[in-house]
Amino acid sequence: MVRSGTLILSVAARLLMPLQLLFSVFLLLRGHDEPGGGFIAGLVAAGAFALYMFAYGTQATRAMLRVAPQDLIGMGLFLGVASTLPAWWHGQPFMTAQWWTIPLIGFTFSTPLIFDIGVYLVVLGSVLTAVVGLMDGGRDDG
Amino acid sequence: MSTEVALPILIPLLSGVVSLLFWRQRLVQRFVAVAGTGSLLVSGLWLLSSVSEHGILVMQMGNWQAPFGISLVADLLGAIMVVMTGIIGFAVALYSLATTGRGHEAFGYFPLMHLLLAGVAGAFLTGDIFNLYVWFEVMLVASFALLILGGEKAQMEGAIKYVTLNLLSSVIFLSAVGLLYGLVGTLNMADIAQRLGQVEGNGMVDVLAVMFMVAFGIKAAAFPLFFWLPASYHTPPVAVSALFAGLLTKVGVYALFRVFTLIFNQNPDYTHEILLWGAGVTMLSGVLGATAQFEFRRILSFHIVSQIGYMILGLALFTPLAIIGGVFYIVHHIIVKTNLFLVSGFVNRLCGSYELKRLGGLYRSHPWLAVLFLIPALSLAGVPPLSGFFAKFIVIRAGIETEAYGVTFIALLVGLLTLYSMIKIWAEVFWKAPPETRKDEPEVAPIGQRELWQMYLPIVGLALCTLFIGLYGQPIYALAEASAEQLLDPTRYIEAVMGRSTGVTP
Predict the structure, then answer these.
(1) What is the ipTM of this complex?
(2) Na+/H+ antiporter MnhB subunit-related protein domain: which residues (chain A) (predicted)?
(3) pTM value?
(4) Is A16 in the B-facing interface, judged by CB distances under 8 Å?
(5) Residue A85's closest chain B neighbor by CA?
(6) Cβ contacts of residue B292 below 8 Å, gap of 6+?
(7) Do B10 and A84 touch (CB under 8 A)?
(8) For residues B370-395, average pLDDT
């Protein structure tokens, strides 16, 4: 269902959204050594969903997200707090970074990455909660 | 490795996250609230016993060594405060099972409560001045949200004053931290203390000291910028008021104690003289404000202000006995004041009002509640043998020993006026005949047995704590004495954080 009424926005939103989401993942993964990271990547992803929401409305966006934005905040915070714990297992102070290399593909996985994913989800969740709240609050019939 | 230093921060964070994940399941949230705050209390007790056994405990977060990383430091004062946070958190969590409506819970009361507790515990345990600012903000964000929970008009009015003055204080705090960093080039409190000793004859240090004093003074609701407290504390749900009354201002007092014993101890004649008179005027203005009030929670709010004065007085006199008195006073006050707010909520639940003139006759219908009110109320006024008597006695004796007669006189006078206020509440709420009910008043819903117990249990528990401190005060006094010793000898703190030998290495 086209809510915005303008064809250009509807079509552009469909095309731009996957690109923006891909870009946000790219920013998230390069964030440890180069400009990027969870916060800015989360904002980019939230921008993608917000664009979709302007074009197709909150109902369609909710259906596409599948989880409530508040749950994203909860999951993100959980990942963030959980990422401080593995160091405990190794008898080091909390938040000490742990690195694991996956042998075959040479990809290095680490607790800072888990933390960044947590930040990503928190930012995405809080911006979407605010935007959805504003768009729903604008209409009385919801 | 000393895990217990980080646990009091991690437990409320984790419980907050879990209750956020289950934000649709009311039962899970309620269970996590009690279990989370209970384990916070247990971890606090573990930390306290561990600190009193091994001395100051340090954890370098992320294994970045001080002064480059953020250190978590638990000395006796910090550990005592964490235990108090646990006690109050647990009591309020139990109490809010009965008093927080479904509507407030749906807006995230429990996750916010855990976040607030995490902020408070973090502020007590951090050894880094900028990290202290961060924990203050965590605490404030949670308290802003809790304060407007429900969104009534009176709440908004109180919240605006609260937010404005607290943001002002945050700005002053942050600029002071920036200037301090420019002066000494470090944010680690132990390192700052070390380097500030080498900066001699610099007026900037005094300026910074006063900036920190103003910033923490606003947070602690000291004279002259205490207006935000009586304007806002009587508006939110009563469990929130009780939580705020017990913990928030005390974080400001704790920060004053920390900063003025560890960092700004070079020129006590200047800074502590200001603190001394600030304390005196705070006591007096708080108690005089209370005499003019006729609303249960507003009277109690003004008394928070006046009691803050006693704690700052302990710091300002700056003798070993005075610091002991200050620490003892904080412990006593946190328990007593929270309990009084819990009782006020109980009265409101029974009669449907906080206005003194619409209450009455409760002694006849609920004699035990009257006794439970009298214990913290008389303790607040300093009647022996309750905890408040010893707290006041130590502070006032320290005042006489240092020959600060003016302020000591104010402290005694304020004790008398506090007694007057408490007796006023007693006479109006419990003693006088119940007022005739008007026709237009809404009927108060009958109170269930289960609800009754959920409200009685924390009140009785806190009253027992008050009695315990009063009748068997020696262990608390010994703890306060040991923590005062640590506070007055900053080299131990500095060595624990900076020294390789005592620092905790994995």
Answers:
(1) 0.83
(2) 8-129
(3) 0.91
(4) no
(5) B10
(6) none
(7) yes
(8) 91
